[in-house]
Amino acid sequence: MSSDDMKKRAAEAALEYIEDNMVLGVGTGSTVDYFIDALSRIKHRIEGVVSSSEATTRRLKTSGIPVLDLNAAGPLPLYVDGADEANRHLQLIKGGGGALTREKIIAAASERFVCIADQSKLVDVLGTFPLPVEVIPMARSHVGRELLKRGGQPVLRENFITDNGNLILDVYNLLILEPTRLEAELNNIAGIVAVGLFALRPADVLLLGTPDGVRAMRS
What we know:
With about 220 residues, this protein is an alpha/beta fold. The protein has helices at about 5-15, 30-40, 55-60, 70-75, 100-110, 140-150, 180-185; strands at about 25, 50, 65-70, 80, 85, 90-95, 115-120, 130-135, 155, 165-170, 190-195, 195-200, 205-210, 215-219. The chain has two domains: about 5-120 and about 200-219, Rossmann fold (3-Layer(aba) Sandwich); about 130-195, Alpha-Beta Plaits (2-Layer Sandwich), CATH 3.30.70. The chain is built from seven helices and 14 strands. It has a seven-stranded mixed β-sheet with strand order 3-2-1-4-7-13-14, sandwiched between helices. Helix 1 (about 5-15) packs across helix 2 (about 30-40). The longest helix is centred in the first third of the chain and has 11 residues, at about 5-15.
């Protein structure tokens, strides 16, 4: 079974968490695209969606799903998004698609965070996937030096600007043994907008697509 098939399985399984007349948050990425396709089949049951990126907004609108503003929607009962890596504590690395800041905001504003992924995303220790860090442009060099001090190798994501007008540094060679501590530490570096570590606010449920079905893990 292909990774796309496993992603689709996980995406379909997330529909079970949707209740009638719900406003939910939706993330960004290839697995989420499958979720939006599935969501379009039951769009009559929901009030609308808060989107984490311009790319997701376009896909939602193409599917005829109403897109709402988070400020107007208020606290959300559910957020569905993918991940680049996940550990057994449901702590994540996200941001491969560059939408980490808005994803983090929506996750923080949601009562339940359901993460959907194929089984290859589950790891023992986070950090094989380079950690995305969104940075204010004028702080790029300063933040890069601070990341070097912590053993990481920051690489500017070429020809990429976030929806917020900022840059992404992808940080290689970080062995993330204490995700919550590292997230809190990096959050305090001036010029960092958001870090792609979702450890202080991990997922509540991880749905992993496998050849044998969907494996559900809970925090």
